[in-house]
Every structure is written in structure tokens, then in C-alpha cells.
Write a structure and sequence with these properties.
The protein has about 400 residues and is α+β, with helices and mostly antiparallel strands. The chain folds into 2 domains: about 180 residues, no CATH class; about 190 residues, no CATH class. Helices cover about 55% and strands about 20% of the residues. It is built from 13 helices and 10 strands. Strands 1, 2, 3, 4, 5, 6, 7, 8, 9 and 10 form a 10-stranded mixed β-sheet that branches. About 35% of the residues are buried.
């Protein structure tokens, strides 16, 4: 018997038990589907993350505290920013921020808010695009202007969608209970975000930007959360970070006070976390695939039992062991091969849909697709061997007597 005859007989056998064949194949479909989806999302997320770092610039260093409970005399302040510029003249940009909480009131409505007090160059360290107006500048910071930047989700919540509210006044109530009127000088773009509707919920606080000096005066605190610098040559990141840390510790009279985290290290750390998560999910998907393969073994063994008399007749008519083995292995490979194709199709489709929903460009890795298909075929070959051998070893005389 040649391969084409085995293929035809295998298809006829699968067609005669369509529902059983489909349910058997479902385990392989889900396994391949999971693998393709996980790998597609992992690749898409990694590509998106790298693209975002490229936009921000992979040449930044952030100086923060080793211990957040640091003494007041060791606090980073705005004076330290001027000091850093002097000790590291090779830096390109420098910025800082502090984060506080409060609530906003527009007319009779209120909403909790996360307040970011930022310096004028903060925009160079974050992906901030303005829809209307401008961002905070040096004048706002030096004069402690009572100005504020809001985002588009805030505008949609309290104003007509798409309205330019630059020049409008909103009231900020700080966590200490004091209130201040702020003038809107800009509206930040929210970009393409699947959580737009959620961000407008009362459960999610608004994020606003204010001059750092204004926030410091409102909350009566000079402490900075961190200082960020960017350099022209990213190969100097580590050296400049160490120099700034050593200089600041010398200025503040202490040791092991601060640490420097550069963007390359942060990018690598995030990438490592994504790899670990993807690996765990991949192991789960492979287990699903193996369980599906065990299901195929089980069904093929049932099929052998059901077709003992047929096998006996074929052997009596001259069929060799290899013919019987070929038939059952072909059935197994057809089931896993078709299952693999279905899983790949669903996985690619699912990956693209999820990427679209979370606004991440989809990434299709044809190498992964090829390996997934070949793996499913190999699975059919491996799990089809035992049932095929059992069928081939049946005694033709005993098989003909089987009822």
C-alpha cells in the first residue's frame, strides 16, 4: 500500500467518526492556538516596548533614593539639579518630578487626581503630546504659576468631547484640605488607548501636570522624587550615573544614599520579566498540547479495538505490518496536522485582535508558525506509533474470529 492509499483510508476513517475526531483534535488545536497567541503577543509587546524606549530615548539615567525613608538633610532638591549640571556638563537634558494626590472640582462635579509636579524639561523624558495649548515652561516653574495640564479623558469627563478648554479654570483641593484655582494651559493627548472609557470612570483618578515649584509650595515640601538626565552618548550612561551619585552623596555628606538606574537596565529588566511570564505561559500551553496528544493515543487505541476484524481481513488479503502501521500513523498525523493548522489560524487571528484592542502593532513570527506546525505533525507521529504497532501486531486468525 502506498502513501496516497493510506492517506485516503485515513481520511475515510476520520470522516466516519466526525464528532469524535473533532473532539480529539480540539486538544491539539487549543495547545497550538495557545502557543501561537502567547508568542505573538510576547513578540508584539517586546517590539512595542523597544519602540517606546526609542521614542523616549535609550540614553537616560534616573537618580533616586536607595531608602525612601531617607533623612530630610539628604533629600534631593531643586538646588541639586543645578549642582548636577555643574558636575556633569556632558548631560543633554535634566528634569525632575514629585507626585502628590488631591481632587479636582469643575462646577458641582469632583474627581480624585494624581498630581505630577514637573520641571520644564520633563516632556523630554515622557511620551507627552499636546492636543491643545502648551506644556509647562521655565517661566511657569520660576514664578510658581498656578497652571495645569489635563488629559483628553478629563476633558471628555467634564466638558464636551473634543472641546479646547485652554484658559478654563478648575479647582484643586489638596490632601491637606487647602484649595487653589488653576488655569488650564494645555490638554495632553491620551493617544490610542483601549482604557479610554475606564479612565473617565470616577474610580480612576485623573492625572494632571503642574509646575513643580507650585506643587512644592502647596504641599510644603522641597523633596524631589528623583532626578532624570539624558546624555548624547548612551555608552556613558553608567559612568555618568556613578559620577552623579558620588557627587550628590559627597554634597549631602552620606554614603549609599542614592542609586542610578539607566534606561538600558530598565529596558532589560522589563524584557526579562516579559520573557519569564511568556515562558510560564508557554509551558502551560505545551502541557495542553501533550494532553491533546494523549487524547489522540486514547482514541486511536479505541479505533484499533473497533477495527480488529477489518485489520484481520486486510492481513488475510496480504496487507503487511508496515501497511497497517502506515495507516494508523497517517491518521494520527492528519489529525494533528489539521489541528495544528486550525490552531495557527486561530492563534494568529487572536493575536492580531488582542494587539488591535491594546493598540500594539501585531507581530507575526513565521519561524514560530512553522515550528508549531512541524511540532504538531511530529506529535502525531510520536503519539501514533504505539496504537499503530498494536494494530500491526494483531494475529490475523484471532482478528477474524473477533466479534
Amino acid at each position: 500500500m502506498n502513501f496516497s492509499e493510506s492517506f485516503k483510508q485515513a481520511l475515510d476513517s476520520l470522516k466516519s467518526n466526525k464528532l469524535r475526531s473533532f473532539l480529539t483534535m480540539l486538544g491539539i488545536v487549543m495547545g497550538v492556538f495557545s502557543i501561537i497567541t502567547i508568542m505573538a503577543l510576547s513578540s508584539a509587546t517586546e517590539s512595542y516596548m523597544n519602540a517606546q524606549f526609542e521614542k523616549i530615548g535609550a540614553n537616560t539615567v534616573s537618580i533616586g533614593y536607595k531608602n525612601m525613608m531617607v533623612e530630610k538633610k539628604h533629600w534631593l532638591t531643586l538646588e541639586d539639579m543645578d549642582y548636577v549640571k555643574k558636575v556633569a556638563p556632558e548631560i543633554k537634558n535634566i528634569a525632575t518630578y514629585i507626585q502628590r494626590s488631591g481632587s479636582l472640582r469643575v462646577g458641582p462635579e469632583t474627581k480624585d487626581a494624581v498630581i505630577l509636579g514637573v520641571s520644564s524639561q520633563y516632556k523630554n523624558f515622557d511620551l507627552i503630546e499636546m492636543t491643545y495649548g502648551r506644556f509647562i515652561n521655565d517661566f511657569d516653574v520660576s514664578k510658581r504659576m498656578k497652571s495645569v495640564i489635563v488629559d483628553e479623558s478629563f476633558v471628555r469627563k467634564f466638558y464636551k468631547d473634543g472641546q479646547n478648554i485652554v484658559g478654563e479654570t478648575i479647582t484643586l483641593k489638596t490632601s491637606s484640605g487647602s484649595s487653589v484655582n488653576l488655569k488650564v494651559i494645555g490638554v495632553k493627548s491620551s493617544g490610542e488607548n483601549m482604557f479610554e472609557g475606564i479612565m473617565e470612570s470616577d474610580m480612576i483618578p485623573a492625572i494632571i501636570y503642574m509646575p513643580i515649584t507650585t506643587v512644592q509650595s502647596l504641599y510644603n515640601s522641597e523633596r524631589l522624587d528623583s532626578i532624570s538626565v539624558s546624555v548624547v552618548d548612551k555608552d556613558q550612561l553608567r559612568d555618568i550615573g556613578k559620577k552623579i551619585v558620588n557627587s550628590l552623596e559627597l554634597k549631602h555628606g552620606g554614603e549609599d544614599l542614592y542609586l542610578a538606574q539607566n534606561s538600558a537596565d530598565i529596558q532589560k529588566a522589563i524584557g526579562d520579566i516579559l520573557d519569564v511570564v511568556s515562558s510560564i505561559l508557554l509551558v502551560i500551553a505545551i502541557i495542553t498540547l501533550i494532553v491533546g496528544g494523549i487524547g489522540i493515543v486514547n482514541i486511536l487505541l479505541v479505533s484499533v479495538t473497533e477495527r480488529i476484524r477489518e485489520i484481520g481481513i486486510r492481513k488475510a488479503l496480504g496487507a503487511q505490518k508496515r501497511d497497517i502501521v502506515m495507516q494508523f500513523i497517517t491518521e494520527s498525523i492528519i489529525m494533528t496536522g489539521i489541528s495544528g493548522l486550525m490552531g495557527i489560524l486561530l492563534g494568529v487571528l487572536s493575536g492580531n485582535i488582542i494587539s488591535y484592542l491594546i493598540s500594539i502593532p501585531p507581530v507575526v513570527d513565521f519561524k514560530v508558525i512553522t515550528l508549531a506546525f512541524l511540532g504538531s505533525v511530529a506529535l502525531g507521529l510520536i503519539f501514533g506509533v504505539y496504537p499503530a504497532k498494536r494494530a500491526a501486531d494483531l494475529d490475523p486468525i484471532e482478528s477474524l474470529r473477533y466479534e
